[in-house]
Amino acid sequence: MSKHTPGPWNNSHGGIRSAHGMNIDGTLGGFERHGDGGFIASTRIPRSIQAKSPEQQERLREAQEANAALIAAAPDLLAAVKEMVAQFELTPEWDLCDYDRRMKARALAAIVKATEVVS
Known about the structure:
The protein is α+β, with helices and mostly antiparallel strands.
């Protein structure tokens, strides 16, 4: 299981920051401590990607904002999915309907994906 930076995470000026001061810069692989909230990830469009039109630039900006919002919500989403699985665990497997079994399996798969350490 991974030891991710605890939430909450906030979307701030093209980057995701932690309120707990842990700085993880995935692009540089560095770890540092900061008292004012640390950097988690960047959602900025690399300078090497040039928009060919204003419309394409707007689509890139919208994708950047959507990605940042999703990344910032990740700790909350993980906690909610874990809580959902805990509720499923209170019900005997034989008493779950097919839909509940599928949702439990999807939730467990999402937890593994979110916590799996890739080396």
